[in-house]
Amino acid sequence: MEHFFYGLVFIAAITSSISLVEAVSSAIMDRAIEKNKPVNRTKISLAVGVFIALEGALVAVDSLGESNLPHPLGLGSLLDFFDLFSEGIFMPYSGTTYSCNLLDGLSQAGSMQKSKIRERTMRRSLK
Known about the structure:
This protein is mostly helical. The chain is built from four helices and no strands. It has helices at 2-34, 41-62, 78-110, 114-125.
């Protein structure tokens, strides 16, 4: 039964990793398409995957602060350092940006006719 549990944990880790790579890769590809640059999905996905693997390897080698690796900003471990940026800076920034975009969209939608809203929504979803 123990092997079954760890097998499920392994499957969950793989699917989460794929989700991380896919989200970042699609954001990079969308930005490249907006700038009319050529897009190579394989190269972008591999680069993102390697970056995530290196970041994970650094955290694993650090062993939650038990190794002799330097700890940026005097934090206890590299995991704390990455957590500071992801939870303390990037999440509030993206949440604020999303909220501002949502409020802007709602304010524009309040002054538009329903047919115009449908037209803009369909135009954006087809890009």
